[in-house]
């Protein structure tokens, strides 16, 4: 049976938010935060790749030298069972509800359910950027801008959660991720949600798409740096009048990301925040 690297360390409560920000781009599938009294926070991370895990440990220890970091190996099956105590239904706006498979029949009847098998891929719905993107998709549909039969691109698909949400609203599309380990996880989730005929998966970058292939909506929940670097390539994939949704962006990074796209002639986005994270939305991209 495969094993995982279990990493644990503590920081003072005053550094907990800073630590979460530090971990976000390095541990995209998430981690556990456990309060220890009122003075400190225990962080617990599980990783599949041991060499990368040891490198991450060195980075954490350098950034938080008093954290008392330690590690051990744990059976993958034990990690999966631990998720059952941690993973609860999540409402994302008025439209979507995220459920684990063991609670798939317990969702609210007036919500669109997305069933996600917790694995080592980004996108269980617990991270604010995922929730913000799904809430935004629901709002855009509510405004009558997205309709059944339209096509989407989910850039940095991770678990496939955003694409699954779009499929459940009657759209079809493509999910791309540079991480090959994300694709089997996303494929499993597509099948669980019975939308595997509506969404194709690719390993690669946005440059892997066919030349001239355009989409009614492009959603990219990655990081601010790549979003800025790929601004031209991403905009080239949005149909005139289409929707662009960007997240994985900290509040202090929002203006820089917005400017990278506004200078290409599409105007300013609507910005919605949840905690320290934001989503940027252009409901009608005109160039």
**How many runs of DSSP E, i.e. beta strands?**
14
SS content category:
alpha/beta
CATH topology of the largest domain: Rossmann fold
The CA-CA distance between the termini, in Å, is 53 Å
The largest sheet has its strands arranged as: 10-9-8-11-12-14-13
The H-and-E topology, N to C, reads as: EHEEHEHEEEHEHEHEEHHEHEE
CATH architecture of the largest domain: 3-Layer(aba) Sandwich
Number of helices: 9
Please outline the major beta sheet: 7 strands, mixed
The stretches of 5 or more residues where confidence is low (pLDDT under 50) are none
At the fourth CATH level, what is the homologous superfamily of the largest domain? Answer: Vaccinia Virus protein VP39
Dominant shape: globular
Counted up, domains total: 2
Strand content: 25-35%
**Percentage of residues assigned to helices:** 25-40%
The overall pLDDT, averaged over residues, is 86
Question: Notable features of this structure?
Answer:
287 residues; alpha/beta; Alpha-Beta Plaits; Rossmann fold; 2 domains; seven-stranded mixed beta sheet; 9 helices; 14 strands; 31% strand
Please render the helix and strand layout as text.
Blueprint: E1 3-12, H1 16-23, E2 32-36, E3 40-47, H2 50-63, E4 70-75, H3 76-86, E5 90-92, E6 96-99, E7 112-115, H4 128-142, E8 151-155, H5 161-168, E9 172-177, H6 182-192, E10 199-203, E11 215-221, H7 224-229, H8 231-235, E12 238-250, H9 254-266, E13 270-274, E14 277-285
Parallel strand pairs: 6-7, 8-9, 8-11, 9-10, 11-12
Antiparallel strand pairs: 1-3, 1-4, 2-3, 5-6, 12-14, 13-14
